[in-house]
Amino acid sequence: MVEDLPITSTEQRLKDQHTELLLHLDGWFERVETTISRLQTTIDHAPVTHLLPSHPRFSVSSRGSQSKESKDTIGDPSNSFLKEKAPSMSVRSEPSLRNSRTSMKRLDSYTVAVKKSSRISESFKKVWTKDGSHTSMQVHRQNPSRCKKLWASLTEFSEKVIHSQWANLFFGAAILSNSLFLGIQLQYRAQNPGPSDTSIVFFVIHTLYAVLFTVEVLLRLLGEGFWDFFFSSSWTWNWLDVFVVISSWAELSLEFASPTGSTSISNSNLRLVRVLRVGRLLRVLRVIRVARVFKALRTLVRSLMDTSKQLVWAMLLLTLIMYMFSIVFTDIVLDHLEDTGEQDTTMEKYFGTLYDSFFTLFRAILNGISWYDAADALRPINLLWVQWFHFYIAFCQFAVLNVMTGVFCNSAIKAAERDHETVVQSLMQNREDFRAQVSNLFYRIDERGLGKITLTELEKHLDDEAVKAFFESLEIGAVDAWTLFLSLDIDGDNLISIDEFMERCVQLRGPARSVDLYAIRRLNVKIRDEMRFLEDQQHRIMAHLGVKHEHQDAHEIEPTVFI
What we know:
This protein is mostly helical.
């Protein structure tokens, strides 16, 4: 037992030295990789002075010196080896570093990125969890109090509720039912004026709606935060909700304080009643907010909001046109009445003043009146003015209104395309429809129902015109069955499963995209690097064997990289 103690301590010391050496080598190689990447351009274009070490003993002495130094390090647990011998090791092992650098180029970039990410994650864990020398970087957090935990859980719960589809549907239904309740209440008041026994029922229902909308506002305030609730992109709706809640509670307070109902209140305080009426109007206006729950309704509302600017300019243009024509018709009618000295009630009805002429022209193009009667009113003056009125009707109907309709339709289409949620839902729906079509095609080819497609089955059904047309409808083209089979078989087992078939059909659908071209470019660059590596290896082997060959500059012919 006594003799085993030195052996155990020596093995433990060797393990510690080995672990420490690996850590230092890992950091040293990272610094070497960084230096090499910075000098990459200069090294690639520099002339090759020697392809293999000029002295064969160089590598042997390097290995021997390294082994000797490692033996010396075993006996010394200090870091003197890394401090004193590292420069000599980096100089003597220069050819091996070049070989290691060249071999590192051949590694898959994805594997290198994953390894580097793993190293960073491990280093981060060590820094933030290890005791001792890293305690200065460790964050010491005090345990949150019970109030903070309760507030955090309440905030998290509120955020989940406001982003829940069922919660949006519930509050949307509450808004719709509240609008319906307001209509029923007004209709009842119109049919039963004065105080009634049912006022207490309306008061209770109104209170329930006020509580429900207050809970909704509080949930949104907790889930979104104070700043985001009042100053985010949807601040208009949030301020509207706050105003509706405040006006509802104010109206309830007045109804509760008044023994005779809201009539006496309205007579005593008209200003406050006007504010409450605005609150009721805004409560009805909140129905528009339900549009965000339903896709079709949201598209219509978004289109109307985006076309409001075009609507203003269209109405301005139409107003200018009607104003110009009304001036002409009013002037002609007044001159005619002054010249004849007679009164024409029909002519004065339609064109007696500028106001009458303007609204006659407005109603005529919108079927508010029969424009035939308005045109006949100008017949006593001259038939030329009747035809001028006909020209106004044709110009507005066929030119102005049709152009406005086209502008509105174009704006509505663009608004629907800019709606992010609508676009995402449309893409998801198209993807699901495409997967359903691909699944039907798979089960049509798989007649035996084994869940696998063989080459024979694919060749058999690919000759069918219906299957060909189905592939073309899916925007998947193939020269022959074998090419298509190789494209669909991912794992290369000569069988195509339903998952492989659906995944590859989604990838092969349509023409080449930018990501496909970029992948080809990266693959082309990788092949070029592999060719350069093989060429360098060939030159070194030939130089090592002493074979004479015609030297060709590596930069005279470069493989073409398609970008």
